[in-house]
Design a protein that fits this description.
This protein is of the alpha+beta class and 750 residues long. The chain is 44% helix and 22% strand. Helix 18 runs parallel beside helix 20.
Length: 750
């Protein structure tokens, strides 16, 4: 899709275009923020402040790829994954992230991005950049100070309460303990309910009178516990605002019951001097005890704060910060002793499906049990850490050779092999493990982590539940991914994509009952590119959204063209990727495409995978109902391969189940596949849903499917996907004139 041609630019604001451009350039160069214009991920313009921010001369930045400004390639790819869909939707993108200067140093930057024209991404993007390193340092210092003050507030041995309009609005735990109250029980209570004095009103008035006069209030009085008993306290109070002390004040409450009792005993002994000495001694002892207790509690608090800052809250394992520290120490020691260190990056296979289907509580318990098994698989000197989500990192200190690492990796796989018992569930969880070794695979922590992560993805690609050592060629895959992404972007912009169509056959009617649109890419340089190669790239980078919209629009346009040629009115099926299905505005896109192409909704069938339907079922239900109410037909693609619950079939307004070709392939030889297919067809018939079998290639497969009651089919037995100009072959299949098996409800025709 090419943007509309630009007409000659008129004078702006009463001046010439040249003058306007000079004014805009003056604004750009004098802006207090860095401004960068990019096109096709290359910098085409940057102001002086942006160049200074990254340590470049102004002309050095022109032509640089956006990746050069990012902290790492991974950070660059992650930024792209976040920003592309936002900009494509016409919205502004904002975030804070670390960037890398020309000299390699990192700094924090606040980023704002906006596509110049969301409908034409090739016109470029404007980026507003602010160095927020100092701001973040100030903010972190403020947060640290706040945490310290809150720690003092909660750990002090004196009760503290904030009162507004004579009601408790905030208190520490010591205040609740003084009154024998549960946490939070005193919030919103009138402060007068806690005072036991007979002249309560006069006391309160004296208190607020002192505050109004700008004095702190100090007094001793009896207060009432929750159980009705009374105790003596010393109260000190200060107003937040002298002009209106009732609006807010802070009270310090100290239990002096024991002191009052001691004083009373000394008075009875009629020894003024002894009483004073004893009272003073008691006060000093209490003060010393209080001081010691506060010092002890402060040390405990500091230990707790350090532990919380360096450990994962869920599993108790070291977090990323502590992992980096221990890995740095291990590398330092290994360098001095000429030893090896192994870094193992673990990702749990299909953990998200457990979280989505069983809930986060089950997922959290699973992660804790996995953490315990990992701890038991390594030595006490080794480090097991959790980065977040279902990602773990194991650092093996002082490794002798690769065989030692293999032994630990096998031990980890074996430890996770037995099922995990959580509530009423017996769950099997397998890991994919990537391994890098110092110094062979890197000499610094960042490189070792990156290479271990790369190896982990290769472990997943190799079938999961295995481990892979890093090899240099693994980074080639990342390069190929990036190159393919760039080529795919150009292909979408240049219209190099096309659609082929595979007929859907109704055997009972001996006719084509639909066509499935399948995207193809004819790369001018490399020829036909397999969908299995470029679709995953499109899904991961977000390109699947504009690609999917193009497929939808092109399929409906082509169906309209066939109708104008006099071809039968039949629906066209379009696949929705999980990411496309979750996209906001999907329903409106479908409605717009149907209006633009003049196609009735009944001639569009959307195919959605089971996995897409099981994410956020309530939102899914709303979206499906909107599409169904519009008149669009809905089919569940690859049915039987997901982690679905049969209950959703009753709730979701779907019309068709497509039996996955993996079950059809071995239908005649595998009893389990045959039983699954028969069950799916019977289930669909019971629920009043259509059934279509995918991947039909042989007479035997077709005969068995017919025997099970299936009526509709798709596969090479009838036709391969064909170009749209092969009209006669698409709408009048030669296979339908052959001696096909009869359906169960009609006699044999031939």
């Amino acid at each position: 899709m090419t943007p509309p041609a630009q007409s000659a630019l008129p004078a702006v604001g009463g001046g010439t275009l040249s003058q306007t451009l000079l004014e805009l350039r003056a604004i750009l160069e004098n802006a207090t923020v860095g401004i960068i214009f990019t096109r096709q991920r290359l910098i085409v313009q940057a102001n002086a402040l942006a160049a200074e921010m990254w340590g470049y001369a102004a002309d050095e930045m022109i032509g640089l790829p956006g990746e050069a400004l990012n902290a790492s390639r991974e950070a660059y790819l992650a930024l792209g994954e976040e920003v592309v869909p936002v900009l494509a939707a016409g919205d502004s993108y904002r975030s804070e992230r670390q960037m890398r200067r020309k000299d390699g140093s990192l700094f924090w930057c606040r980023i704002s991005a906006k596509a110049i024209n969301p409908e034409y991404p090739g016109q470029g993007t404007i980026w507003i950049m602010e160095d927020v390193g100092e701001e973040r340092a100030i903010r972190e210092a403020f947060e640290q100070s706040t945490r310290e003050l809150l720690g003092i507030f909660e750990t002090t041995l004196i009760g503290i309460v904030v009162v507004r309009h004579r009601r408790v609005v905030r208190n520490n735990r010591r205040f609740e303990q003084l009154f024998g109250a549960a946490p939070g029980a005193l919030i919103a209570r009138p402060i007068t309910d806690l005072i036991a004095e007979d002249d309560l009103d006069a006391l309160v008035e004296r208190f607020y009178a002192d505050l109004r006069d700008g004095r702190d209030h100090h007094s001793e009085l009896r207060m009432r516990r929750e159980d009705g008993s009374t105790f003596f306290v010393r109260i000190s109070g200060r107003a937040f605002h002298v002009a209106d002390p009732v609006a807010g004040s802070a009270w310090l409450i100290e239990d002096i019951t024991q002191r009052r009792a001691a004083e009373h005993a000394l008075l009875e002994a009629n020894s003024e001097m002894e009483r004073r000495v004893n009272a003073r001694t008691a006060e000093l002892a209490a003060a010393n005890e209080k001081l010691q207790a506060e010092v002890f509690e402060r040390m405990q608090t500091e230990q707790q704060i350090w532990h919380m800052a360096h450990h994962d809250a869920l599993t108790g394992l070291p977090n990323r910060a502590l992992l980096q520290d221990r890995l740095a120490q291990a590398l330092h020691q290994a360098s001095r002793r000429d030893n090896r260190v192994a870094v193992m990056f673990l990702d749990l296979d299909r953990f998200k499906s457990i979280n989505d289907s069983l809930g986060h509580a089950v997922g959290d318990e699973l992660l804790k049990q996995v953490a315990e098994r990992l701890r038991g698989s390594v030595r006490s000197m080794d480090t097991v850490s959790r980065l977040g989500g279902d990602e773990f990192v194991v650092v093996l200190h002082d490794v002798g050779n690769a065989d030692d690492v293999v032994m630990v990796a096998e031990k980890i796989l074996a430890s996770l092999a037995p099922p995990l018992q959580i509530e009423n569930h017996s769950l099997h969880m397998t890991p994919s493990v990537g391994i890098s070794v110092f110094p062979d695979d890197g000499t610094d922590a960042m490189q070792l982590m990156k290479n271990a992560d790369t190896a982990m993805y290769h472990a997943k690609a190799a079938g999961r539940n295995n481990f892979q050592f890093f090899a240099g060629h693994m980074n080639d895959a990342a390069t190929r991914f990036f190159n393919l992404e760039q080529r795919l972007r150009r292909a979408i912009d240049r219209g190099e994509l096309l659609l082929h169509y595979q007929p859907l056959v109704d055997l009972e009617r001996r006719a084509v009952c639909g066509l499935e649109a399948l995207v193809r890419w004819n790369d001018p340089e490399n020829g036909m590119v397999s969908p299995g190669e470029f679709i995953p790239v499109a899904e991961e980078t977000g390109l699947i959204v504009p690609l999917g919209e193009w497929v939808l629009r092109e399929a409906m346009r082509q169906n309209r063209a066939w109708q104008e040629m006099g071809m039968p009115l039949i629906p066209v099926s379009v696949n929705l990727s999980p990411r496309q299905f979750r996209q906001r505005g999907l329903v409106e896109v479908v409605r717009t495409v149907l209006a633009e192409t003049g196609q009735p909704a009944r001639l569009l069938e959307l195919e959605i995978t089971e996995g897409s339907l099981m994410q956020d079922q309530e939102e899914t239900l709303v979206r499906l109902r909107e599409l169904a109410e519009m008149g669009v037909r809905l089919a569940i693609d690859d049915f039987g391969t997901g982690y679905s619950s049969l209950s959703y079939l009753k709730r979701f307004p779907v019309h068709k189940l497509k039996v996955d070709q993996s079950f059809v392939r071995d239908l005649c030889d595998d009893k389990e596949d045959a039983a699954i297919v028969a069950a799916i067809i019977a289930l669909a018939r019971t629920l009043g849903l259509d059934t279509l079998a995918e991947g039909v290639e042989t007479d035997a497969q077709l005969a068995m499917l017919v025997q099970y009651g299936c009526r509709r089919f798709q596969g090479y037995y009838f036709s391969r996907p064909l170009a749209p100009d092969q009209t006669d072959c698409l709408f009048h299949l030669p296979a339908l004139a052959e001696n096909l098996p009869p359906t169960a409800t009609q006699p044999k025709l031939f």
